Amino acid sequence: MTTPVRVLVVEDQPTQAELARLFLSSLGHDVRIAATAGAAFAAAQDWHPDALLLDIELPDYDGLALLKQLKQAGSDAVIVVVTASASMELAKQAIRDGAEDFVVKPYNRDRLAVTLSNALERRALERAPAQPPASPSRPRTEAAPGNLSGFVGASPAMRAVYDVLKGVAPSKASVFITGESGTGKELAAEALHRLSPRAPLSFIALNCGAIPRDLLESEVFGHVKGAFTGATSDRTGAAKLADGGTLFLDEIGEMPLDMQVKLLRFVQTGTFSPVGSSKAEKVDVRFVCATNRDPHLEVQAGRFREDLFYRLYVVPVELPPLRERGDDVLLIARQFLAQFSREERKHFKGFSPEAEALIRAYPWPGNVRQLQNVVRNIAVLHDAPVVGPAMIPAPVNRAAPLPPLDPPAPSLAPSPAIAAPPPADIEIMPLAEMERRLVIAAVTHTAGDIYRAAALLEISPSTIYRRLAIWKKAGQLPPGFAV
Amino acid sequence: MPAPPLLAADLIGELPAHDLLHILALFRTDLHRLTAAIEAAAAAADLPALRRAAHGLAGAAGSLGAADLEAACRRAMAAPSPAHAPEIRTLADAADQGIDDAIARITPQ
């Protein structure tokens, strides 16, 4: 049962404000509406709401500024930010600035009720006296909620991803997933399908980068007998197989431009013709695409058609790299260890603190896939109750422990395994340090032009902004460095 | 004109009929106001105003289930241009018809 609280809805659009009011009132809450940031600040001072449902885009000034203003004024209201899925960066920023959670538009009453109730509960727990853990030796597992099985992690970055996936799943809107290799893009696509009303029908995945370009059209649309040499019978393509379900086009950035034209027509009309046939077929397909490249840069470079991009880039989902997911890396490592111990009939129960420190410090350029391989390596080659640092293979065992918000630790003495002199033309250093120097060099080289620096490094501008914010907070930027 | 979207389908069961009718009436007002604002901004090539109005309409359309209109508005937000206005007008007209259909479904016969 919901405990009634005071909720201030900060929203300037009447339909959305009224809908929120009706939802919240039907849950028993006491609701007021403020249509501007200024009115909201005044209401927060006078009425002392328990929670704010805060839209980011407001007519006088934006919700993030209001959030800071409220925090500075000592407001202890729980703040839930309302955001469009395309504004996930703003939502994440709001969480960093002190919002408790966010909810993605459009939301229904149940989603709003759960988000608000969880946010209030978390706040209550944070204020409760600390309790010792019930069972310190028991490995913690924090799997993603609901049908997001396969995902493990409770970091703010992943909670943002779960919310988008759950929010967008019921619609037919195309979803565009970005993220480095090994971050779980196909897992996200499968989760979307599983959460959607299309779940009983097919989920068809095609890796556009793994199919020879001459065969791609046939793989997507199928072909008829005699369409080309070797086409000895009719073949059904992925588009037809996915009818009523979801078509997942992985590595879409690898798709040749001539095929992009054909895909665009299919996305626009829902109709296609198998290779060698003039007969159009119509299907009902939800498109989910993924790439490990920055799609905006691909469009700018002319490698990805802009019209196709905007058709597919309706709801973007950015999967964070493992190095930005905090303690998720340990949760995932423990989950893999339990799984591989069972499979390999070993006796591992957990990692030693030293081993966990190495895992936490390593930047994991290959993300979850690399972590999976490392833990499998350990489970295959060793057997003990606890994984110690000596069992951690290279290069993870060379990771310097770098708590992200502390000043940089002095370098570890090289282990005997890497005591050979470094190559003359390159200084060997932790990968995270190399990354920091390279990004700073690129930004300096482009005179602070983040977009040009991002293009040179072939990474997303938002990645640079995030890195700079972390390094600034940790005092790891050179004196006088400014953007 | 495209087929009218099925509006408020997800809200039936969450809200009583009189609240639904109230929301649909508000949405119609927002739909007309914001579509006109988008067209005016497009005519004046005022891209910030166009983006703001598209933001408002995208949220309202999404809440009621007008997915195509929401998507068109989000495209206009991502790359504001007067060229988006005609498509938004077409989809807004369809949504207007969708409001009538939804009212007919909800109103007791």
Percent strand of chain A? 5-15%
**Main sheet makeup of chain B:** none
Report the sheet with the most strands of chain A, covering strand number, pairing sense and barrel closure.
5 strands, parallel
Quickly count the domains of chain B. Answer: 1
List low-pLDDT spans of chain B. none
Task: Give the count of helical stretches of chain B.
Answer: 4
What is the CATH third-level topology name of the largest domain in chain A? Rossmann fold
> Whole-Å distance between the termini of chain A?
50 Å
What would CATH call the architecture of chain B? Up-down Bundle
Q: How much helical structure, as a percent, in the residues of chain B? A: over 70%
What's the alpha carbon Rg of chain B, rounded to whole Å? 14 Å
- Described by its quaternary structure, the protein is heterodimer
Judged by helices, strands and strand pairing, the structural class of chain B is mainly alpha
Radius of gyration of chain A: 25 Å
Tally of individual helices of chain A: 18
- Helical amount of chain A: 40-55%
CATH superfamily of the largest domain in chain A: P-loop containing nucleotide triphosphate hydrolases
Topology as H/E string of chain B? HHHH
What separation lies between the terminal Cα atoms of chain B?
Answer: 28 Å
How many beta-strand elements of chain A?
A: 16
Structure explained in plain terms:
The complex is a heterodimer of chains A (483) and B (109). Chain A has 483 residues and is an alpha/beta fold. Chain A has 4 domains: 6-125, Response regulator (Rossmann fold), CATH 3.40.50; 169-318, 3-Layer(aba) Sandwich (Rossmann fold); 323-402, Helicase, Ruva Protein, domain 3, CATH 1.10.8.60; 431-473, Arc Repressor Mutant, subunit A (Orthogonal Bundle). In chain A, 42% of the residues lie in helices and 13% in strands. Chain A has helices spanning 14-26, 37-47, 63-72, 88-96, 109-127, 156-168, 185-195, 213-221, 238-241, 257-269, 295-300, 306-312, 328-344, 353-361, 367-381, 431-445, 450-457, 461-473; strands at residues 6-10, 30-34, 51-55, 78-83, 101-104, 175-178, 203-207, 222-223, 235-236, 246-250, 271-272, 281-282, 286-291, 315-318, 350-351, 386-387. In chain A, the strands form 5 sheets. A 5-stranded parallel beta sheet of chain A has the order 2-1-3-4-5, sandwiched between helices. The longest helix of chain A has 19 residues, at 109-127. Chain A is globular. Chain B has 109 residues and is mostly helical. Chain B has a single domain (9-106), classed as Up-down Bundle (Four Helix Bundle (Hemerythrin (Met), subunit A)), CATH 1.20.120. In chain B, 72% of the residues lie in helices and 0% in strands. Chain B has helices at 17-43, 47-64, 67-78, 85-106. In chain B, helix 1 (17-43) runs antiparallel to helix 2, helix 1 (17-43) runs antiparallel to helix 4 (85-106) and helix 3 runs antiparallel to helix 4. The radius of gyration of chain B is 14 Å and the shape is elongated. The interface between A and B is medium-sized, with 26 and 29 residues.
